[in-house]
Specification:
With 349 residues, this protein is an alpha+beta fold. Among the domains are: 47 residues, no CATH class; 196 residues, L-fuculose-1-phosphate Aldolase, CATH 3.40.225.10. It has twelve helices and ten strands. Bound molecules: zinc ion.
Amino acid sequence: MKKVISAKVIENLLKEGGDPRSLPANVIFTPAAQDIISNFQRLGKVKKSKKQSPPIVPNYEYTWKEGSDVRTSNAINEFFHSPEIKLLKERICEMGRRLYSKDFTDGNGGNITIRVGDDLVLCTPTLISKGYMTPDDICLVDFKGNQLAGTRKGSSEVTTHIGIFKYQPKAKACVHAHPPYATAFAIASVEPPTCIIPEAEIFIGKIGLVNYETPGTLENAEAVGKMGVDHQAIIMGNHGVITWGKDVEDAHWKMENTDMYCKTLWIASFMGKEIRNIGSSKLKELLEIRNNLGMDDPRTGMRECELCDNDDFRPGVICKTPNQMKNDKQTAYSQNCGPDVEDFIKKTY
Ligand SMILES: [Zn+2]
């Protein structure tokens, strides 16, 4: 009987610097082993004939020439079915699957957009599960929300995304979902505190909170759009979260980051301990890292005393540094010397 060589055997051989071509001719390779050998031979040839290329930083941002939006129905149709747009439609479907798999959307909840012109937006349709979309489901609308292409009707909530695109030109894509932890902050109207976790400061920045407005209305679009100028993640009161990014995956990451941050805060609030604040001087270092990664932050240039300002109610969170707390005690006491105030301070701190 011929000897069968598995993928594992080939992997080990390659790890030790061996060559599969040195194996006897009367052996049988499993299909997986054959794949590894073909790859080895192919890559071996590439190495000999080509110089190694520099590493690539992926950039999925869609760019267009200002003032060059398609106008006629034929041109719109051609544009809508072009390979570049097809790729973006596929990426929207992929982000939809990710949202759905993480329980960030249920039923037909959530929507995703990519800006593809001065006045053109690719968007997910209404009444569809974000986990099961195909590229043929995606629509094209203008900034007034008029449908330009696509067989399914675009979501009415696209107006909120357009609000962000109008006020923040750096926003090239938006993701809206109802992730449970961040949405819990939305219904409790709690703005997540800052100065707690370094990655949150670097990759999300300060999370914005806007008051409830009916989804899909211009009031909501205005409030969210204005908040989007300085915030990449916005919690919409009693509703959910909308995030923007330089491309659709970036916008999706902001959604993941936001919900994970809210989840971590929520869990920590049950531990019976103070949630510590890293302090303003450390935040300044993080803002520098954020700026070096090409992400603006409205807090850059603020005075230290203005950073880490978390005076609102936060469950389980005492966001002031020990020095701030000491100063507050002295200020409050010197301004209000009555016994009630002293008692309050003792109880509070
Ligand atoms: Zn919604």
